[in-house]
Amino acid sequence: xxxxxxxxxxxxxxxxxxxxxxxxxxxxxxxxxxxxxxxxxxxxxxxxxxxxxxxxxxxxxxxxxxxxxxxxxxxxxxxxxxxxxxxxxxxxxxxxxxxxxxxxxxxxxxxxxxxxxxxxxxxxxxxxxxxxxxx
Length: 135
What we know:
It is a single chain. By secondary structure, the protein is an alpha+beta fold. The protein has one domain (3-132): Hotdog Thioesterase (Thiol Ester Dehydrase, Chain A, Roll). The chain contains three helices and six strands; from the N terminus they run H-H-E-E-H-E-E-E-E. It has a six-stranded antiparallel β-sheet with strand order 1-2-4-5-6-3. A hairpin with a 4-residue loop joins strand 1 and strand 2. The mean pLDDT is 95.
């Protein structure tokens, strides 16, 4: 089965990712880069007022994008050890797209960088996740 379909099936399983409504967009094996999409939903709005996406939703999106980019590279059994999120601007009345790129895959750790872009093509957040490789 095509890799993006497998990723989408995992995202659609009941649970948190399904609640976020994340969709798999593209995978570039040469760049080890996965693109995911999360549309604007009222359930994702935060305390800044109507139309503002909650920063926690953006953080969960970054962690999810990084995880699935690593899984797309064939790394399994790799829990998130740490992730950092810099929220650069508010997401208002917009969905977001994440580009997660695997920077390093070592024997014990992997590092993935994530850029989050809004519908106006503005960089709204950047993240970096470190994963423990248990296999």
